[in-house]
Predict the structure.
Amino acid sequence: MQGRLRGLPGRSRRAAPELALRVAEDVLSLGETRLLEPMNPADRRVVHMALAESEGVETESEGEGYYKRIKIMPVL
């Protein structure tokens, strides 16, 4: 399953924390890792920061180049 967040200049940084929290809830309830769509570094940072204090999930960027995906994983 994938979460959404792609190329919405300005607006994406405001939407990113809400999306990240919704996806984190899914990860916790399903116990499955989810991948977000590729994001620029600024948007990725917002997502990582939004979930840094969340219990039960961890985040990791994956991919090559400027646009990378964020993997949101349950902590086992």
Remarks:
- The radius of gyration is 11 Å.
- The chain has one domain: 2-69.
- Residues 2-69 form a domain with the Ribosomal Protein S8; Chain: A, domain 1 fold (CATH 3.30.1370.50).
